[in-house]
């Protein structure tokens, strides 16, 4: 063995193409080349523009929850680009493979659905929602930061290290073919030798460690950092969903960590947790994985529910209908989500009575979710509705999410599930929940809070265009899959039988391309809006006539968020303050503010974690030892640092606050109907 | 904060012996309790796996009753319980006496007991492997047995490193608020590991021998 473990030049994806110049290898090499070029381009831009220093001191070492949140979202968007590209390639392959082999090998197709699923869940959905909670939640509860800012940065670094591992796997070696759920014994050493499954294990483990820490941090923040008067039942609904999601993270990530580590012990050290024979039992894996996996889908959807709640109420110009019922429904969903995991394997041989219990429990979740849908609808009733991008997506969400929910109730019936398990019907169902629910929720959140984060709105017309591409694309891409599934099409197939599948698959391919086009328009929208940011600027900070505390701040908010911690005595406090005409009053005294100082510990831990994971994948043991030692050293060294905060003098706080408020107070308020025009500078004219 | 008799977190509060640190303790200690909770979930999952595989996963290898030896395990238990007691004395020294010597002394005793525990447990593993060929690669039961006890072992080892770091910091910084809060969290972890061990002793060893 060389010092580089199992690693060899022939593991480079390009070497595969030289050995066998087929279309299959060409696709793999192109993806690898794309990753390399992307990385090189990023380095060149950073160097040419001289952005290294600002990147390091302004972002990578920053402990500001707002910046960490933005970095999470950027990570999620970059990974999203890769995962949609993979989805389109899969669709193209299935289209090309009717009755012939198509252009991808079955093993390559397996890698594609595995990376697509793994990326979408762990490196798109989780970073997006974590980022948005990070940015918004402390502002909504009137806090200056999360309770543990450094832990927050470490969570991001671990997640980014996992994502980096996935990107490296495009160039060096192969990825797992075991699907995002990685079931053994297929993923065990006997059936999947080589580095693929190891890549999957360590990427997922890093991400799950990061999410565990995030969940604890958010929960403690919401319990302990609320401003005076912010009782639990005065919290904005988004914060409520953030709390429930965090609690789910605390409880649900551990089973995943245990499952992946046990799988690793099986593979590396010959243990028998899940092997076939010697007392291994893969059903234990299925239980552990879904003990995480089902709560996970609620970790994903609850924050989106929170976003929708804010969106419906803000763009209807009304308080949220049924606040208490929405809170209770959220809590019910969070609790119930731990009682249904078995519905992911109804067909794996337990007694019919057990299936029945879990089937009924699953259907029960439909009840609180239904309550929410009615609450949102009733929020819009008699509201003055403005169809900005978030609300357009929101209305679409209401219609399509109900369809997805209904097919979920169908699948919850074990007798039905026996017919539809692992079919394209299931694929249609979960994309039906994840795309209109979670993904559109995250894009709605981006449109909604982007002006708060950067001080300018996103171009409205391009936003509408991309929303319509997504909405049409989703219908084309996934509605046919319900039919295909009922016609007998199974999931994870590189090739479907010839016959009636062709036309519907073509529609599905079209849909995937439309979704990809919608994303391209979104990127264009970002680019255009950055170029024309002066025209779109909303420095006064309240572009949508917002109701909650975050809108009381300038855009972008200062590092310390609130010059003086606010005191609230009701829900929607900012709305009330605007109506009372006291929204931009000046505080009468200022104090020095202590904020966390920058720290290089998080990037160091991220780098160490990546080194450990990469070393484990390729059996480079010295790298593993070195990474672990570095991580331990970083943690211990940090505990000896005495200056962990930085004081911002009261005079500076005063200057910034009064500079902003004195302008905001005299700014011309913009009526709601003109909010999508240049007249909107971020001071809203409140309406009763 | 006005009310000095308030309890800010479960466990030993500093309260009027050190009001300043007492006030800062609230979110830090609460955060640590939450961390412990997620650690307990980890152990719960391991216990659940043990429950399944210690019955179904023997696969012709040695069964629990054949390899466990209660005498050694009982000693491990006693040593660890005593260490929890001495950790409690360390916490009392931290709270009531601004007496670094006493605190350091009890931390040293705790570390020595912890080290003894690790030694005894390691020796027990070696015995099982030597006398019965009971290594984790033999069966599903042994895999989870070593994973469960090994996870606990790793936790105790990490806590030992933590004690070491604390000893250095007490020497270097004295009893600054940060140092105090760290010792308090260390104590929580140490007691929790004790609780987990009681679970292991009962559920793995006692039940295992009875069957
Ligand atoms: C954006 C448009 C999307 C398209 C066109 C798309 C397409 C696909 C396709 C073709 C598959 C493989 C189906 C099969 O096994 O036959 C798949 C699987 C999957 N997708 Fe998507 N998807 C999209 C978005 C998402 C999103 C947003 C998520 C989650 C947040 C997601 C999560 C998954 C998962 C978990 C799998 C299963 C992977 C596995 O079999 O292990 N997808 N998707
Ligand atoms: Cu489920």
Automatic annotation (TrEMBL), chain A:
InterPro entries: Cyt_c_oxase-like_su1_dom, Cyt_c_oxase-like_su1_sf, Cyt_C_Oxase_1, Cyt_c_Oxase_su1_BS. It is a multi-pass membrane protein. Its main location: membrane. It is found in: Cell membrane. GO terms for cellular component: plasma membrane. GO terms for molecular function: cytochrome bo3 ubiquinol oxidase activity; cytochrome-c oxidase activity; heme binding; metal ion binding. Residues 50-569 form the Cytochrome oxidase subunit I profile domain. One of its GO terms (biological process) is electron transport coupled proton transport. Belongs to the heme-copper respiratory oxidase family. This is Cytochrome o ubiquinol oxidase subunit 1. It comes from Wenxinia saemankumensis. The lineage of its organism: Bacteria, Pseudomonadati, Pseudomonadota, Alphaproteobacteria, Rhodobacterales.
TrEMBL record, chain B:
The keyword Transmembrane helix applies. GO terms for biological process: aerobic electron transport chain. The lineage of its organism: Bacteria, Pseudomonadati, Pseudomonadota, Alphaproteobacteria, Rhodobacterales. This is Cytochrome bo(3) ubiquinol oxidase subunit 3. It is a multi-pass membrane protein. Gene3D superfamilies: Cytochrome c oxidase, subunit III, four-helix bundle. Cytochrome bo(3) ubiquinol terminal oxidase is the component of the aerobic respiratory chain of E.coli that predominates when cells are grown at high aeration. Has proton pump activity across the membrane in addition to electron transfer, pumping 2 protons/electron. Keywords: Cell membrane, Membrane, Transmembrane, Transmembrane helix. GO terms for cellular component: plasma membrane. Pfam families: COX3. Belongs to the cytochrome c oxidase subunit 3 family. Residues 1-209 form the Heme-copper oxidase subunit III family profile domain. It is found in: Cell membrane. PROSITE patterns: COX3 (PS50253). GO terms for molecular function: cytochrome-c oxidase activity. The chain crosses the membrane at residues 28-53, 73-94, 103-120, 140-168, 188-210.
């Amino acid at each position: 063995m060389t010092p580089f473990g199992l690693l060899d030049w022939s593991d480079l994806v390009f070497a595969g193409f030289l050995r066998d110049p087929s279309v299959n290898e060409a696709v793999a090499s192109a993806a690898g080349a794309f990753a390399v070029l992307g990385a090189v381009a990023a380095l060149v831009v950073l160097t040419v523009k001289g952005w290294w220093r600002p990147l390091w001191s302004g972002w990578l070492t920053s402990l500001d929850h707002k910046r960490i949140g933005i970095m999470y979202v950027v990570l999620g968007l970059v990974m999203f680009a890769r995962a949609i590209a993979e989805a389109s390639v899969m669709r193209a392959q299935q289209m090309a493979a009717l009755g012939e082999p198509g252009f991808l090998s079955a093993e390559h197709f397996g890698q594609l659905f595995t990376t697509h699923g793994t990326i979408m869940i762990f490196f798109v959905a989780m970073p997006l929602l974590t980022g948005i909670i990070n940015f918004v939640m402390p502002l909504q509860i009137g806090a200056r930061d999360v309770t543990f800012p450094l832990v927050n940065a470490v969570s991001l670094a671990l997640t980014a290290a996992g994502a980096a591992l996935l990107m490296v796997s495009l160039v060096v070696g192969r990825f797992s073919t075991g699907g995002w759920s990685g079931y053994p014994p297929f993923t065990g050493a006997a059936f999947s030798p080589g580095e693929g499954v190891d890549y999957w294990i360590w990427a997922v483990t890093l991400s799950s460690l990061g999410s565990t820490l995030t969940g604890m941090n958010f929960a403690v923040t919401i319990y302990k950092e609320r401003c005076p008067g912010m009782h639990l039942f005065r919290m904005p609904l988004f914060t409520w969903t953030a709390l429930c999601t965090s609690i789910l993270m605390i409880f649900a990530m551990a089973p995943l960590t245990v499952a992946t580590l046990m799988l690793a012990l099986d593979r590396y050290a010959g243990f028998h947790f899940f092997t076939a024979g010697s007392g291994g039992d893969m059903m234990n894996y299925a239980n552990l994985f879904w003990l995480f996996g089902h709560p996970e889908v609620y970790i994903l959807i609850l924050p989106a529910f929170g976003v929708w709640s804010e969106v419906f109420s803000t763009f209807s110009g009304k308080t949220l209908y049924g606040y208490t019922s929405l809170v209770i429904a959220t809590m019910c969903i969070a609790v119930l989500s731990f009682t249904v995991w078995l519905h992911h394997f109804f067909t794996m041989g337990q007694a019919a009575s057990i299936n029945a219990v879990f089937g009924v429990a699953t259907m029960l979740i439909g009840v609180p979710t239904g309550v929410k849908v009615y609450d949102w609808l009733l929020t819009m009733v008699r509201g003055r509705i403005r169809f900005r991008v978030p609300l357009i997506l929101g209305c679409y969400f209401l219609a399509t999410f109900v369809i997805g929910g209904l097919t979920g109730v169908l699948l919850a019936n074990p007798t039905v599930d026996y017919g539809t398990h692992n079919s394209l019907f299931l694929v249609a169902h979960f994309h039906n929940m994840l795309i209109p629910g979670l993904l559109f929720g995250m894009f709605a959140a981006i449109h909604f809070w982007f002006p708060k984060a950067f001080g300018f709105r996103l171009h409205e017309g391009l936003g509408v265009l991309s929303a319509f591409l997504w909405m049409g694309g989703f219908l084309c891409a996934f509605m046919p899959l319900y039919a295909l599934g009922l016609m007998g099409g199974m999931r994870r197939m590189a090739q479907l039988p010839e016959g009636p599948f062709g036309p519907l698959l073509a529609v599905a391919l079209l849909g995937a391309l439309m979704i990809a086009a919608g994303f391209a328009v979104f990127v264009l929208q970002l680019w255009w809006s950055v170029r024309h940011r002066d025209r779109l600027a909303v420095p006064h900070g309240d572009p949508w006539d917002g109701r909650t505390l975050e809108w009381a701040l300038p855009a972008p908010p200062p590092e310390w968020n609130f010059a003086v911690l606010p005191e609230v005595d009701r829900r929607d406090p900012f709305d009330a303050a605007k109506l009372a005409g006291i929204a931009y009053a000046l505080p009468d005294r200022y104090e020095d503010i202590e904020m966390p100082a920058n720290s290089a510990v998080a990037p160091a831990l991220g780098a160490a974690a990546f080194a450990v994971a990469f070393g484990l994948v390729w059996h480079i043991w010295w790298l593993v030892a070195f990474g672990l030692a570095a991580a331990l050293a970083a943690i211990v060294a940090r505990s000896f640092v005495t200056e962990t905060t930085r004081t911002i003098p009261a005079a500076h706080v005063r200057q910034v606050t009064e500079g902003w408020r004195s302008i905001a107070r005299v700014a011309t308020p913009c009526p709601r109907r003109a909010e999508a025009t240049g007249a909107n500078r971020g001071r809203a004219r409140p309406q009763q | 904060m006005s009310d000095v008799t308030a309890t800010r977190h479960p466990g030993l509060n500093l309260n009027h012996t050190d009001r300043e640190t007492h006030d800062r303790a609230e979110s830090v200690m609460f955060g640590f309790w939450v961390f412990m909770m997620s650690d307990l979930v980890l152990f719960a999952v391991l216990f659940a796996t043990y429950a399944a595989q210690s019955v179904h996963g023997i696969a012709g290898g040695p069964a629990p009753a054949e390899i466990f030896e209660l005498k050694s395990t009982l000693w491990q238990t006693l040593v660890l319980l005593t260490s929890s007691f001495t950790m409690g004395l360390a916490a009392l020294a931290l709270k009531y006496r601004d007496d670094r010597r006493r605190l350091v002394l009890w931390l040293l005793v705790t570390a020595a007991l912890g080290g003894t525990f690790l030694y005894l447990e390691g020796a027990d593993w070696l015995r099982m492997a030597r006398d019965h060929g009971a290594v984790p690669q033999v069966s599903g039961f042994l895999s989870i047995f070593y994973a469960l006890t090994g996870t606990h072992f790793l936790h105790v080892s990490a806590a030992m490193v933590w004690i070491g770091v604390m000893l250095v910091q007490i020497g270097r910084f004295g009893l600054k608020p940060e140092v105090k809060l760290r010792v308090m969290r260390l104590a929580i972890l140490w007691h929790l590991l004790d609780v987990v061990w009681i679970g292991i002793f009962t559920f793995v060893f006692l039940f295992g021998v009875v069957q």
